[in-house]
């Protein structure tokens, strides 16, 4: 962990980010309801708010899902990753407003509990055109709630990065449910090609970005060869590593970040203890390897976080032979 | 350490690519022209 790091640091960047986000939400809803009132003069304010918050939440979810693969493909997008959690919570709140308004508008005026009405008023599960799409949106909202509620370092440490990551991969299930929610709901009644076109373009963008980034990652996982007699593996040329930067190599099933600094090389696990961020894509700042995602820091020689923090990542023995860098694949220190 | 997670991500998106395409094609195929718009009529006037 970095000496400067705190779990919630309301630093200037976060305040600017959150202010811009809140302003964007207000501006979008105001523009949507204003334009909606002109185009559909008979629509009630509740209807316009349901549509406005629903489209905004869906749009934000697309942006959130694109940030990860964009960062894998191009480092210039990394600043977007810094505060993705706040974007996720904002998206959940917009989806919650959409859900609550819809529940009140369509299910709260009868003599049945609104939640019971949601699941019992339409049971035509065998049809496509009349499928009970609202229940799909409700299930997605439950998943988004679980993610928003655990979107804090407290839960990351309690659950462990591995479990937390698995839990947050449920966003893909939520996304599929929401595409179904829109396809079987709004798309069935809204016959203009605009909604269909936007839905197709959004889904195609998200899926393509993830597949391209995933394919690139698979290539990077190909293990390095050329094992020397003493067990060291030749990984790269010394000159190919920029000063205070790293080259990421794969040894067995592990990715290792080989850093060059002050004429030396140090190798440590590429996986940050915080959220499994790629340490090898960071750089050495103040003598410490600094994770590009959230700024966690580690000594390049020992893998230890600077005091008072106690995090540690595994390190690997290195050797320079001529211009060649060799790394022993057996990790040392923390596992 | 993160290899299995990366593989899970990739496989999930392969499945989603197929599933979402099927879903969108089915939803667009099932779409019917709605009742012709009558500018004199809106259910929201009944509220």
Features of the shown structure:
heterodimer; A: 335 residues; alpha+beta; four-stranded antiparallel beta sheet; three-stranded antiparallel beta sheet; 10 strands; B: mainly alpha
Order of helices and strands of chain B: H
Helix content of chain B: 55-70%
Strand content of chain B: under 5%
State the distance separating the first and last CA atoms of chain B: 58 Å
Radius of gyration of chain A: 24 Å
**Structural class of chain B, please?**
mainly alpha
- What kind of oligomer do you see? heterodimer
Q: Please list the strands of the largest sheet of chain A in the order they lie side by side.
A: 2-3-4-8
What is the approximate shape of chain A? elongated
- Helix and strand sequence of chain A: HHHHHHHHHHHEEEEEEEEEE
Tell me how many strands of chain B there are.
0
Q: What is the CA–CA distance across the termini of chain A? A: 17 Å
Question: What profile does the largest beta sheet of chain A have?
Answer: 4 strands, antiparallel
Number of helices of chain A: 11
* Largest inter-chain contact set: A-B, 41 and 31 residues
Give the class of chain A from helix and strand content and strand pairing.
alpha+beta
Report mean pLDDT of chain B, rounded to a whole number.
81
Would you kindly provide a written description of the structure presented here, covering whatever features stand out?
The complex is a heterodimer of chains A (335) and B (47). Chain A has helices at 12-39, 45-73, 78-82, 84-107, 114-120, 133-149, 153-159, 161-168, 171-184, 186-189, 193-220, and strands spanning 233-237, 246-251, 254-261, 264-269, 283-285, 288-290, 297-298, 315-316, 318-321, 324-327. Chain A is α+β, with helices and mostly antiparallel strands and 335 residues long. Chain A has a four-stranded antiparallel sheet with strand order 2-3-4-8, with no helix packed on it. In chain A, strands 1-10-9 form a three-stranded antiparallel sheet, with no helix packed on it. In chain A, strands 5-6-7 form a three-stranded antiparallel sheet, with no helix packed on it. In chain A, β6 and β7 (297-298) form a beta hairpin. The model of chain B has no long low-confidence stretch (mean pLDDT 81). At the A-B interface, α8, α9, α10 and α11 of A face α1 of B.
């Amino acid at each position: 962990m970095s000496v400067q790091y705190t779990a919630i640091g309301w630093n200037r960047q976060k305040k600017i980010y959150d202010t811009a986000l809140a302003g964007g939400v207000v501006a979008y809803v105001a523009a949507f309801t204003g334009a909606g009132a002109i185009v559909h003069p008979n629509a009630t304010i509740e209807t316009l708010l349901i549509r406005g918050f629903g489209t905004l939440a869906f749009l934000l979810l697309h942006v959130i899902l694109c940030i990860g693969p964009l960062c894998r493909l191009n480092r210039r997008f990394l600043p977007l990753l810094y505060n993705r959690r706040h974007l996720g919570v904002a998206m959940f709140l917009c989806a919650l407003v959409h859900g609550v308004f819809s529940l009140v508008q369509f299910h709260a005026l009868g003599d049945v509990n609104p939640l019971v009405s949601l699941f019992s008023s339409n049971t035509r599960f065998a049809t496509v055109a009349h499928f009970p799409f609202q229940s799909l949106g409700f299930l997605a909202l439950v998943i988004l709630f679980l993610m928003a509620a655990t979107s804090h370092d407290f839960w990351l440490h309690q659950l462990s990065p591995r479990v937390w990551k698995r839990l947050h991969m449920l966003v893909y299930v939520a996304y599929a449910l929401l595409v179904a929610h829109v396809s079987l709901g709004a798309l069935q009644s809204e016959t203009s090609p605009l909604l269909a076109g936007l839905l197709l373009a959004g889904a195609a963008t998200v899926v393509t970005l993830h597949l391209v980034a995933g394919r690139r990652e698979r290539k990077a996982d190909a293990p390095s060869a050329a094992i020397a007699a003493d067990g060291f593996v030749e990984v790269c040329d010394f000159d190919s590593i920029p000063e205070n930067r790293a080259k990421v190599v794969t040894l067995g099933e592990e990715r290792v970040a080989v850093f060059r600094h002050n004429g030396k090389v140090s190798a440590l696990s590429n996986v940050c203890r915080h959220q499994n961020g790629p340490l090898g894509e960071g750089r050495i700042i103040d003598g410490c390897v600094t994770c590009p995602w959230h700024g966690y820091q580690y000594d390049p020689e020992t893998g230890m976080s600077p005091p008072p923090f106690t995090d540690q990542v595994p390190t690997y023995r290195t050797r320079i032979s001529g211009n060649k860098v060799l790394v022993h694949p057996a990790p040392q220190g923390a596992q | 350490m993160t290899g299995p997670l990366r593989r899970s991500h990739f496989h999930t998106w392969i499945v989603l690519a197929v599933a979402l395409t099927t879903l969108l094609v089915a939803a667009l195929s099932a779409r019917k022209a709605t009742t012709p718009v009558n500018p004199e009529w809106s259910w929201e006037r009944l509220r």
